């Protein structure tokens, strides 16, 4: 009798005959749990601590892949790091493929792009930190210490991560 889609764009992807029965209702996010925290801290496994207010750039996707603009983000990092010598980059996401195809000559898009882009990811001197998939409490802290969150995606359903970044008080650079 009725169907639900989280966004007008997703509704528009269905055949026209079904669209009158589809209501747009986004799942939403928990704004009571999310929010800016001036005391927020996030600690890397090597002991390095990031605090709210530090020059931290974040990127989040379930999996790091082109449909979420990961390739564009990675290719921008050398210029970003050169222009801002104190900024740190925290990248959250796995190495699987959720959308699109896997790379041809690498096990993951992260591996393929690290071959292409010259950035330091070492735990001692690197400023780019791949965090993998995180438990939600740690992920929240990453957003709460973020100065700028980067959200690059192709037309698709708006990601929870963007809404959560906005709710956490991040400035956002988005496609």
Helical coverage, percent range: 25-40%
- How many separate helices? 5
Biggest sheet strand line-up: 7-6-5-8-9
Spatial separation of the terminal alpha carbons: 35 Å
Q: What is the number of strand segments?
A: 9
Low-pLDDT windows of residues: none
Shape summary: globular
The arrangement of helices and strands along the chain is EHEEEEHEHEHEHE
Outline the biggest β-sheet: 5 strands, parallel
Please state the CA-atom Rg, rounded to the nearest Å: 18 Å
Structural class, judged by helices and strands?
alpha/beta
Mean pLDDT: 94
Approximate strand percentage: 15-25%
Describe this structure as you would to a colleague.
The structure is a single chain. The mean pLDDT is 94. This protein has helices at residues 8-12, 70-83, 109-116, 136-145, 160-167; strands at 3-5, 22-24, 41-43, 49-51, 56-63, 88-94, 128-132, 148-151, 171-174. It contains five helices and nine strands; from the N terminus they run βαββββαβαβαβαβ. Helix 2 (70-83) runs parallel beside helix 3 (109-116). With 175 residues, the protein is α/β, with parallel strands linked by helices. Helix 1 links the parallel strand 1 (3-5) and strand 2 (22-24).
């Amino acid at each position: 009798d009725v169907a639900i889609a989280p966004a007008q764009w997703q509704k528009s992807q269905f055949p026209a005959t079904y669209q009158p029965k589809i209501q747009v209702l986004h799942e939403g996010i928990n704004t009571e749990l999310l929010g800016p925290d001036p005391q927020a801290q996030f600690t890397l496994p090597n002991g390095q601590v990031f605090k709210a207010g530090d020059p931290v750039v974040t990127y989040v996707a379930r999996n790091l892949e082109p449909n979420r603009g990961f390739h564009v983000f990675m290719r921008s990092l050398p210029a970003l790091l050169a222009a801002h010598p104190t900024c740190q980059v925290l990248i959250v996401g796995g190495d699987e493929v959720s959308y699109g195809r896997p790379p041809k000559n690498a096990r993951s898009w992260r591996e393929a792009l690290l071959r292409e882009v010259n950035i330091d990811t070492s735990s001692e001197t690197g400023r780019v930190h791949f965090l993998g998939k995180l438990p939600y409490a740690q992920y929240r802290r990453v957003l709460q210490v973020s100065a700028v969150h980067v959200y690059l995606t192709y037309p698709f359903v708006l990601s929870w991560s963007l809404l959560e970044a906005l709710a956490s008080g991040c400035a956002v650079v988005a496609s």
